Each structure stands twice: as C-alpha cells, then as structure tokens.
Amino acid sequence: MDLSFIDLDVGVYNELGEERVSPRSGKIYFKPVVSQSLKPVISMVFDSVELAYGFYVTYAHASGFSVRKNSAYTNHGLLKLKYYVCSKEGFKSGSEYSTLDDANNGKRKRGKPSKRTGCGAHIKFGLNDKDKYEVYVFEEEHNHSFVHKDDIQFLTSMRRVDYVKESAIQALSQVGATKNDFKNFKTRQSEYISEYDTDMVIKRLEKKKKHCGLFWADENSKKSYLVFGDVVRYDMVFVPFTGIDNHNRNITLGVALLGSKTADTYRWLLRAYANAFGSAPKVVVTDQDAAMKRAIQDVFPNSRHRLCMWHIWEKVTSKVGPATLNVAEFKEKLAQIVWTDSITTDEFEEKWPSILSEYGLSDHEWLADLYKIRKDWIPAYYLQQNFSGLMRTTSRSESENHFFNQFCNPRSTLVEFFSHFEAAVESQWYEHRGNDHHSRYTIPGFMNPTCASVTRQTVGDFLKFEIEDLKQPCSTFFEVMYRGADQTISCSCRRFELFGLLCRHIFYVLRISFVTEFPKKYIVRRWRKEAISNMSLSSFRPEEFGENRADVEVVLRQLRFAHEYNINKLVSNKEQLCLYRDYVKDYMSKADEAQVVAPPPSRRDRFA
Length: 608
Hints:
Layout: E1 18-21, E2 28-31, E3 45-46, H1 49-63, E4 67-75, E5 78-86, E6 122-127, E7 133-139, H2 163-172, H3 179-205, E8 213-216, H4 219-228, E9 231-233, E10 238-244, E11 250-258, H5 263-277, E12 283-286, H6 290-299, E13 304-307, H7 309-314, H8 316-320, H9 327-338, H10 345-358, H11 365-372, H12 396-405, H13 414-441, E14 451-459, E15 462-469, E16 477-483, E17 488-491, H14 495-499, H15 504-512, H16 549-570, H17 574-597, H18 603-606
Parallel strand pairs: 9-12, 12-13
Antiparallel strand pairs: 1-2, 3-7, 4-5, 5-6, 6-7, 8-11, 10-11, 14-15, 15-16, 16-17
Helix pairs in contact: 5-6, 9-10
C-alpha cells in the first residue's frame, strides 16, 4: 500500500485553557484560563439565581465551554438550591438502533454523535440566611479540552437571540421605504457603477488588469488548498475551483471569470492557479471540452485529467433513448459497471460489449466514442490514483454553481458579483468552522459490525483474512492482509487508496486482532479534525522536536496562544505593538546564537 500521499504534519487547533496532569492519578485534565474578575469563588453572593446563572455562563464562554441547567431543590415554592453543570456532564443514555440493521422491528433511529464525556465541572448556588444566592461548591477542572474563542459562537448556550439581536431584527422592519424605492436605488447604483465597474474590481483585488479573465484566491482558500487541493473540479465562464474538505463538503479554492473558452484562455487560467497556490492538483475533473483538455495537458502535465461522470451520465437518456425501447433498464445495467470501483478493467471490457449487444447498441456512435475515452471517466481505469474516488458519485460543480446562484445572478455588475461572492465564501467558511466545531465537540457512536471472518491463513509475514461483508451488494468477500509487527494492513476493496479512509473490513480485522489504537500512518491529514489550523502561523516540523516531543508541543501551544493574545491586545496601540515587534525581533538574534551553539542533528543523522 502506497503511503506517500500521507502527511502527518497536521495543523494545531489553538484551544483555550491549560492542559494539566494530576500528580496523584496521572490523569489529564483541563483548567480554564480567564480573568479573576470572571472566575467564580466560594462565598460569592448574587441577588437572584438569574444573575448567578448569567455570571457562570459568562465565565463558561470566556473559558470555552457550554453550560447546562441541572437539578434544583425548592421548599414551599422557594428555590433553595440550584445546580449548573458543564454541557459535557454525564454520558449518552438510551438504546441505539443501527440504520443498516433491518431486524429492529422497523425502528430506524439514526445514531447521533454524543457531546457527553462525563465531565465533572459544576457549580452550586444555595440560598443563604440573607435571601441571597451564594456559591458553596465550585469545581473548575474539566476532563475535555475547550473550544477556540472564534468557535464559542457554536456553543449551545450561545445560540440565543438576545436583546441586541432582537433590536437589529426589529429595525429591519422599520426601514421606511417601499419596494419601488429600493428598485430606484438599485437602478441609480448600477448606473454609477457601470462606468467604473471593472476598474473598481481590479482595484479591490489589487492586481493588474488581464484581458482574458480574472482569477483570485484569498488566504483561507490558499490554506484550504494545501490540505484539500488533491482533487480539483472547475467549470467554464464563471469558474469556481472546487475541492472537498475534511467533512466531505464542497470548499471553494479559487474563482475566475473568463471572457472566452479558448485553449489560450484556459492556459492563462491554469498558470494563474499554479502561481497562486505554488503547485498543481493531483487530479483535475472537468466536462468534455477539447480546449480545456489541451490546456491541462500543457500546464498540468503531471496531473491526472478526468471527465465528470455526472455530465456524461446525464446525456445517456437523450443520446440513447431513440435507439432503444427500454432506456431505463439499459441505464440500470450499465450503472452496475460504470458507477462502481469494485470491478477490474478486464471485467469492464468484458461486460460493456455484452450489455450493448443485449440492447442492440453495439454500433451506436455516441457509445462507441465514450468507449474510446473510457480511461478518462470509468473508475476501473484509475483505481491506482490516490483519492480518485472523491469526485466520482456526484457533480461537485453543479452543487457549487447552485450554491453561488443563491447569492448572485447574471445581471449583477462585477462589483456586485464580487461582493456577493465574498458573502458566499464567508457563508461557506462559517459552515466549515461549524462542522469543525461539531466534530471536535462530539464523540461518534459505534455501530454493530456487519462483517464476519471466514478464513485466516499465514502468507509470509502477513496474516491473510477472508472477510464476508454482510451489507455489500456487489461482492460479499474481501481479502485483508495484516502484518502485526509494523501494523501494515490493506484490503482488496481499496477504500483507503480511493478515499483515504479505512474500510469496515480493516476495522473488523483490527478489532479481532485486539488492536486498540488505529495505526497513525493510516490517519490522513485531510480527514482529521485539525486538518486546517485556526492559526495563521505555519506548521512546525515534528522531526525537529527531538526526544521531548510531547513537552515541546505543549510549549508551542503556549507560545502560539501568548503570541495571538498579545497581538489582539495591542493591535489598537501602535506604539506598544511596535515595542512588542522589536522585542520579538531582538530575540531572533538570540535564537540564531542558540542554534549556532547547539545545532540540530542533520537529516542523515536522524535517520541513520
């Protein structure tokens, strides 16, 4: 199994708080780092339980966790005791039903990820003899990490419409203008913009004017490309370059506007793309366009060019319909050899003419042309290409175009389009951050295994397992090869090579082999929660850390947090910010001297 495409140097998710180790139990716990004015202390007094709750919620949000109301004790209608806990307190309860198991009496409950980790952080308020609510129990240690300050907006207790938001919403209903007033304003605005439209966009992009088109990508797009730019899809005229993020969702890597569809225009576009990102994608997926194909061959000679299966499949009915009476049945049979990565090239070339002959389509010109270019769109011919399965089943570009159509229309000026585009990308990025937060803040459930081991035998230094997949419709048996010495494993279904994810057959073999931790070499960076760091600082090389890697990583997290904290505090004070810059630059010379005194081991020495 080829692991050359794996990069374990993942980004760092800059969380709030401090990670500590208990000197007695050795367990890891997390402690909030907040201002003393926000931190609850024993015997702190509040006039009402609402004020007490509001204070604890403010402390929680500054710390990076969410609050949940718990039990209360009342006596003759008077609240005597109120208990608030971390939202991760306790564990998920209730029976689970597998969505794949048909033997559950029709119950189809989907197993949702759990947020609970059994956290013991809590606070108790009690009514004292002066009718005030007093803090008499406060536990601040958590058994989980906290969220980053930019992700606090996704916490459950933050999702509320407060007075400020209500006022803003109500203000929108009191604009004091009619529909015609808005239309007239739009008309006057368009008339003013039309004369300076292109110049305004060029100035905004701070780039020189190009006659064949515009291409741009912001910093977030460039950061995303480093991780998710292995497979890229682009369309024509309005050209969104689309990748797939670590949640299997579309992510925009760049956008262009083209004035023509010639090979020269596409060459310019691809060169601009390469200049912006510094490298070419491994796989490029497009529709059938001869000029585009020539441009990709010239500019990205080492990239694998593939045709979008969705666009081809959409034409089958119109192209084949008049030639056969039962086109639906024909498409169903053809799909069994086209929309699958479980057959070989020999099987495909054997079944294709057989199906065409069955429906009297052996001499069909359009199908004959498709067969000639079969290596560009049939999955069986690019099974050896890493991540080639990511863009096979649906049209990513059609989904991306639909997404942008919600924000703009063909009648928009360039300035309006650019503003709408920024809003669209911001919306996309917000959704990505929300998905990141959800994956970090929840624990996925485990489903019952749908595999069974049929045979096991030794082949050299490998164990060969024949696994029966009870839920696989095309082929029920798969071969898994496992070597326990270095935890090398592979499966004949090739899901890891196609998607970068281990299949359930490998999961099953690791489980029956009593492997309690997944081999790190099979955890691909692009699918990790920390695929994209929320920091703008570049990643560090882990091989430079030496033997004290764990300790060094803790120090690095503290340095990252301190650096960001100082900049955010001083950004409005230029004088103090310059002093901080000078201090850091002065220390750079000391770092150079330290490196001269004790140089790190060379790469040859490290791997000798």
